[in-house]
C-alpha cells in the first residue's frame, strides 16, 4: 500500500536528506511553496500540494493546504471501515506522515515592527496540519522538530514505529502549536494592551529534571525562555538542584550588575552574604568572604569572570556547594574538583551574561501575579538627587552604587553597608527597616568588621529618622535611598546633623 508524506517547512535545514530517505523507504512526497521548490531543485520526486487539492494556491499563498483532500487524508481513521469507505468514495488518499514547522513569527517580530508583515507571518495552514496529524497519531507520524528527523527515520527503518512513539511526537506537536499561539497572543497583548491582556501565557522549554524540588518529596525541573540555559549554562561538575538554580540566579544577577568589573557575590538561601569588587577576582572573593564566612559555608558563589588556579585554591579553603562562573581554566577545575561535593557550572563566556527577562511572576494561592521585571537603571545612582549639604567622594559614590544595586536585589526590608567596594554588613527580609539596620550591624560586630566610614543603601525609603540615628552610631558617612516618605525632611535633617551625605534616587526597588 502506497505511503504518503506531506512536508511543508519554514526551517529547511536537513529537509532534503530527510525527504530523500523517505523516498527510499517508499514514501510519495507532497509539498508546498518554498519546500516544494527546494526538494524539486534537489532532484527529489515531489508532488505539489495543489495537484492533491485540485485547487490552486490563492490569496497570495494564504490558502494552500486548507482542503479536505489534505485534512481528510490526514484525519480519516484507518481502523474504521466507514472512514475508509468514505475516503474511497470521495477520492481521498491517506497521508501517513506530516512534517511541518511554522512560519518564523518570533524572528519576524524581532526584526520588524511592520504590523502587516507580522500578520502575514502568522501561520494558519501549518498549525492546522500539525493539529490534524497529532489528533490522528494512531495512524499518522507528526514531526515538528528538525532534531527528530533521524529518530523518525531510525524507527521507520527498524520497524519500531509504535503507537507509543507516535504518541510522544503527538505531545510534542501540541506543545509546539500551543507555544506558537501563546507567542502570538502575548505579542498582541503587549502591542495593544500593555502586555496585560485577559489571558497571558508563560511558556518554557524543558532543560533538565532536577534531582527533586525544594525538598526530597517534591519533583522539579528547569525550564527556559529563549534557549538561555541551553546556550549559557554548562555543567562542569555535579548535578544542579532546584534550590541551586534559584541561588545561582540571585547570585549571578548581583555579580553581573557592574559591567566588566571583577565582581563576586556569595549567596546563601537566596540572600547575599558577601560581595566585593576589587582589582582581581582573588581579591574580590577574599573581601566578599569577610562579610559573613559562616553563612558562606555551603553557599553559592557567582564570579563575573574566569576562575583561575589562585582563586580556586582560595575557594577550596572552605566548603562551597556551588561555584557559577563565566568560565574556569582547566587548572581551576582540577583544583576545585578535589572537593568531592562541590558543583561547578559555567557559561563559557568571559563575563557573566544575563537573560534580562522583560517580565517576572510569582505563584500565589490559586494563580500568579505578573509584572514588568524590575531593573536598576544604569544612571539611577549617578543621577540621584543630593539632598544633604555634604556630597560624597568618588569612592563613596562607587560604594553607594554597589550598596544600592545589592539592596535592590535583596529581599525587603533590607539595608546594605558597603566600604571600599566590599559589602561589610547586610540585613534582609525584616519586618521593619530599622530592625534590618540593627541586624546588619550586629552581624558585622560578630564578624569583627569595622563599618565606620561605610555607605548605606536601602531599597525603599526610611519612614523615620531612626535608621539614620542607628547608622550614625556605626559611623556611616553616606546614605542612598529612594526618598518619598512624609518624613523625608526629618531624615535629611538627621543626615545633616551627623555630617552625612544623603542621596534620593526617586525609584523604589522592593523585592518580596
The second-level CATH architecture of the largest domain is: 3-Layer(aba) Sandwich
Quaternary structure annotation: single chain
Give the number of DSSP strands.
21
**Average pLDDT level:** 95
Q: Output the CATH homologous superfamily of the largest domain.
A: Methylglyoxal synthase-like domain
Rg, alpha carbons: 30 Å
State the domain count: 3
Helix content: 25-40%
CATH class of the largest domain equals: Alpha Beta
**Which residue ranges are poorly predicted, with pLDDT under 50 across at least 5 consecutive positions?**
none
Instruction: Report strand order across the widest sheet.
Output: 8-13-12-11-9-10
CA-CA gap between termini: 63 Å
Quote the CATH topology of the largest domain.
Rossmann fold
- Structural class by secondary-structure content: alpha/beta
Shape: elongated
